[in-house]
Amino acid sequence: MPLDEDKYPGETGRRRFVKGVVGSAALASVGTGGAAAVNTVTSAAGGGGGPTQYMAIENTDGPAPRGMPIVPVEVNDSGELQGIFPEASTETVQGVQRTVAEMDLGGTTYSSQWFQYCGLEGYQGVTPGVEADNYMRASASPPPAYEWQQDVDGDTILTVDMFDDYEEWGNGIGQAGLGKPASATWRSQAEGAKTLPVQVLRSPEVSKMANGEGEYSDLPSNVRSFIDAATDQDFMAWINKCTHFCCVPGYKQLAGSANFNGENAVYCQCHQSIYDPFSPTQVQFVARPRPDS
Q1: Do 169 and 99 contact (CB within 8 A), yes or no?
Q2: 242-248-254 Cα angle (round to 5)
Q3: Tens-place pLDDT, residues 32-85
Q4: Which domain, by its residues, includes 168?
Q5: Measured between alpha carbons, how far is 224 from 279 in angstroms, rounded to an integer?
Q6: 14 lies in some domain
Q7: Is residue 19 part of a domain?
Q8: Is residue 278 a part of any domain in this protein?
């Protein structure tokens, strides 16, 4: 699938390329010979689960076995940020009917099974066919992870104007200008629904990844095509559940992350796993079966 050059035009003088965001060592694990590397974790499969390839922000250090899944996003005509969730359909496999939610996105099969880990497989928000609110909403958990969110009520829909300063934003942790983050929830508004934690980031690096500019020229074409289709106006997002012990990490949230080279990355303080949002990669795991399967 060709990249949408109008969506992410080439770098202009207004954008500042940030050197050293993604080192060659990190990119080396993304692709070999133009194909995406696949990291595999083996466990028992079950109904509604099984081996699943997905796009992730790469795990670059610590005990986490793989990256956290990317959530495709779009900005609607009102400037509100929404996640994309595939529509459900019914298919028959070996004589057994099952409900699946998947779609093609930038040449990649995007499926609800991407999120079936750490108990999330039982959440309403990741169940195929469940009507849910796709808006990205400010996390209501006190205190806010970022000072700027103190002025935003919990459950407020995130909008583009909240991130107008994303090319300069900084909070004293790591390098300023890499993007402005927000702690958010997604598809968690239904009565009795459990909260699905998401990290949102608006960064000038997003369009560079989609275009393969500078240090991102080594990104495999399938990863670039997915990033182009799964991001909008420099926004990206991912499920914020560590793949190690299901903790909730954070991008530029803890000053102590610098002790583990995580000040410009997503850092999980529980066991020091590091994830690089500027190193998207395709990985594989065995999705856990849904309780209703």
Answers
A1: no
A2: 110
A3: 333 333 343 333 333 478 999 999 999 999 999 999 999 999 999 999 999 999
A4: 35-287
A5: 11
A6: no
A7: no
A8: yes
Model pLDDT for residues 238-249, shown as the tens digit of each residue: 999 999 989 989
pTM for the structure as a whole: 0.83
Q: How confident is the model at residue 269 (pLDDT cuts 50, 70, 90)?
A: confident
Q: How many CB atoms lie within 10 A of CB 79?
A: 13
Alpha helices in the chain (DSSP H): 24-28, 205-211, 221-230
- Supply 129's token pair: 């066919």
Dihedral sign (CA 277, 172, 235, 128): positive
- 214 domain-assigned: yes
The size of the chain, in residues, is 293
* Distance between CA atoms of residues 223 and 54, nearest Å: 10
Residue 24 has pLDDT above 70, yes or no: no
Instruction: Decide if 171 contacts 258 (C-beta within 8 A).
Output: no
d(CA 242, CA 9) in angstroms, rounded, equals: 33
Tokens of 272: 């020091």
Q: Please give the pLDDT value at position 7.
A: 56
Q: Structure tokens of 56?
A: 């992730």
Q: Which residues contact 103 (CB under 8 A, 6 or more apart)?
A: 86, 87, 109, 110
- Indicate the number of domains in the chain: 1
Cβ atoms of residues 181 and 165 within 8 Å: no
Q: State both tokens at 250.
A: 């954070």
pLDDT at 225: 98
Alpha-carbon distance 18 to 275, whole Å? 18
What are the CA-CA distances from residue 146 to residues 11, 252, 256 (Å)? 29, 9, 15
